[in-house]
Amino acid sequence: MELGLSLGYGRREEEEEEEAEEEEMMEDMEEARSSGEPPVQLSLLPSVPAHRFPSSSSSRLGFAWTADNTAAAAAAGNGSLVASAARGFDVNRVPSAEDAEEGSPNSIASSFRTDFSAIGIAARGEGVAAERASSARASDEEENGAARKKLRLSKEQSAFLEESFKEHHTLNPKQKVALAKQLNLRPRQVEVWFQNRRARTKLKQTEVDCEYLKRCCETLTEENRRLQKELSELRALKTTSHPFFMQLPATTLSMCPSCERTTTTTTTTTTTAANAAAANAGGSGSKHASSFASLFRKKPRFFPFVSSSHPATSPAS
DNA sequence: GACAGGTCGCCTATTACATCA
DNA sequence: GGTGATGTAATAGGCGACCTG
């Protein structure tokens, strides 16, 4: 997977190689767009609609795989990026000598070292930069067994990664390397950031889904309670207010234990016109098909998920 | 073609650290 | 200044896909 650009190349060759790579990346991006590569979205209540990911967003921040990122940032008025790039101090690490060694996990980033000061996103201040650099050094040391130090990405870096994440929830190796180069991070850091970002998105979506299902459950419970009450009122009405009313069949209300839907069962032989109509319409007591509306010739009330499927299986609407 | 071994990318759970109230 | 809560960078382990001999 390692791209092995760092060793044995003259500067000119490196530049040509990088230009070719960026062209390839742009082609890849175009391919991805045109093939309708779907953004990662969960089925319920999409958290970030696709229309919020305009294809221009990459150029707005000037991702490495788009043309002339720095110029794009400048053209888009992204002054902080340009200015920080112009300031040119390192963010997280000073690529170490061993990074250039073959097989080092940092070898890719180090291959872009010469461009860092011109393109990279700088930290908020020299103090921060120094701190970050020391953190990065500690991170390097950690690879040699020392305790790991945690660095925090700058706001600019985070914003940049966020924009990139809106564009793609996953990165191919080229995009990863390009982004790392642009942000002056190691590709591994970019990869980890995307992994954690996906995890956060998923967690958030799960919470939203959970909340949604909870509300559905509450609604159904309330509806059930209301229907039970209405039924008892109608029964009372039947016995007191309409002595001449033809005897309604005794209807037993039973509840499906899994979905809490009610089912009626007619137990007497005397029928009313309404009941006969209901019987003609399919009979009462069939699974999840009985309807108080048909029984009493009332207009059907709105009931969520009443159409055909089980509530738990079709909450998408 | 089937299979084992290696590599890679991703997911998930967890840890460790920085920051803030 | 100490402390707990929170956010998040980083790590570890597992899994599936893919490639190669």
Automatic annotation (TrEMBL):
InterPro entries tied to this protein: HD, HD-ZIP_Homeobox_LZ_Class_II, HD-ZIP_N, Homeobox_CS, Homeodomain-like_sf, Leu_zip_homeo
Places the protein is found: Nucleus
Assigned keywords, A-Z: Coiled coil, DNA-binding, Homeobox, Nucleus, Transcription, Transcription regulation
CDD domains linked: homeodomain
Residues covered by region (Disordered): 1-48
Limits of the Homeobox domain: 144-204
Family: Belongs to the HD-ZIP homeobox family. Class II subfamily.
Database matches in PANTHER family: HOMEOBOX-LEUCINE ZIPPER PROTEIN HAT14
UniProt-recorded name of the protein: Homeobox domain-containing protein
Organism encoding this protein: Iris pallida
Lineage: Eukaryota, Viridiplantae, Streptophyta, Embryophyta, Tracheophyta
